[in-house]
Amino acid sequence: MKLDGRFIIPGLVNTHVHLATRADPRQARAYLRRELFSGVTMVRDMAGDVRLIAELKREAAEHEFPSPDIYYAALMAGATFFTDPRTHDASYGLEPGTAPWMQAITPTTDIRLAIARARGTGATGIKLYADLPAQVVEALTEEAHRQGLLVWAHAAVFPAKPSDVIRAGVDVISHADFLAFETLPSFPQTFAEARSADLRHWQTAPALNAVLAEMKRRGTILDATVDVGYRSSTPKWPAALASQLTHEAYLQGIPVSAGTDDDADWKYADSALLDEIERLVHDVGMTSADALRSATTIGARTIGKQDLAGVLMAGRLANFVVLRADALKDIRNLRRIDRVVKDGIEYRRSAYRPVTPSGMARRPL
User: Fold this and answer.
1) Residue 310 lies in a domain
2) Contact yes or no for 320/312 (Cβ under 8 A)
């Protein structure tokens, strides 16, 4: 492989995707194919129908179609959350809250059994989503770690505050904008309440600084999902909120990963992860080098694969991206992909053809 005049970076890790909120194999495969040709060699799925996701994981590992490797979560939340229609879609055919990959946790739940059921799905970690009190977050985290699972959580799990979630010892928290809830005089008790909260007047306060300090002390990773705010802002939830809070975390030296929190929309030529990485530079204020670390080294840590991926060195997976220009000089050069190598297999960007709606209708991927 002749690479004169090219630039090589580790394969990118998208630390927040949703492949199967409602299972659609063709759409998910089209999305994954697009991700790989955009330089993404690993993804972390953060809740969906594991019946499909587990099969996609196997197909990706066997190189049955061009795809990043897949690591996924089994979701847990309070029973009140399971009125959300997304939970019905992701466990279609089962009573919401009863699927091993999407469990309702109640005061009578056997925590050891719940974690064992989650582990049996093949998940890498559990995701603590919403409507769980602090003591339950702590109990689930402790048992998941005991059984060898990582723990991923929303930055606020309502009524558990960000400070509660961090003290519980979770490995990764998602959504930097949720940290703003720590500064509110009245904290929402449910996820439904939180969605209508007014976050325009958050401020850097001792309570927030204490959360950030504890995150740094523990090495908690922030899955910031900055670009989501710009894609779906509301009058009470400002577009720049996540980037402002991620900036505060970055200044404190907290590890930040790069994730998109997008469903399997295959219609764009490039992964939304490239937008997220550019946001980390232009809106958060990271250096290009640190933004690349967020999408590589730190991304590998979110799925517990830091000994296999995220850096270029002997003994690691042969996952890397060849660029035609230097992304350290201009982060937009991440879009100038020459080829992607995953598990030693080469995928030339020039061979990529975006899927069209008519193509999706006519033939399998």
Assistant:
1) yes
2) yes
CA angle, residues 223, 309, 8, in degrees to nearest 5: 100
DSSP 355: P
Instruction: Give me the CATH number covering residue 322.
Output: 3.20.20.140
| Peptide bond between residue 159 and the one before it cis (omega within 30 degrees of 0) | yes
Domain count, the chain: 1
Identify which of 2, 17, 104, 7 has the alpha carbon closest to the alpha carbon of residue 56.
17
Asked whether residue 221 is assigned to any structural domain, the reply reads yes
d(CA 73, CA 62) in angstroms, rounded, equals 21
Please report whether residue 195 resides in a domain. Answer: yes
Residue 245's closest CA among 188, 173, 331? 173
CA distance linking residue 202 with residue 180, whole number of Å: 6
What is the chain's pLDDT, residue by residue, as a tens digit (365 residues)?
A: 667 789 999 999 999 999 999 999 999 999 999 999 999 999 999 999 999 999 999 999 999 999 999 999 999 999 999 999 999 999 999 999 999 999 999 999 999 999 999 999 999 999 999 999 999 999 999 999 999 999 999 999 999 999 999 999 999 999 999 999 999 888 999 999 998 888 988 877 888 999 999 999 999 999 999 999 999 878 888 999 999 999 999 999 999 999 999 988 878 889 999 999 999 999 999 999 999 999 999 999 999 999 999 999 999 999 999 999 999 999 999 999 999 999 999 999 999 987 766 666 655 54
CA torsion angle 58 64 65 66 (round to 10) = 80
Dist. CA 111–CA 142, nearest whole Å: 10
Q: Position 113: which residue type?
A: L
**Could you give the CA distance from residue 260 to residue 124 in angstroms, rounded to a whole number?**
19
Residue 250 belongs to a domain: yes
* Residue 346, helix vs strand vs coil: strand
Domain extent for 63: 7-362
Is the overall model pTM greater than 0.90, yes or no? yes
Residues composing the chain:
365
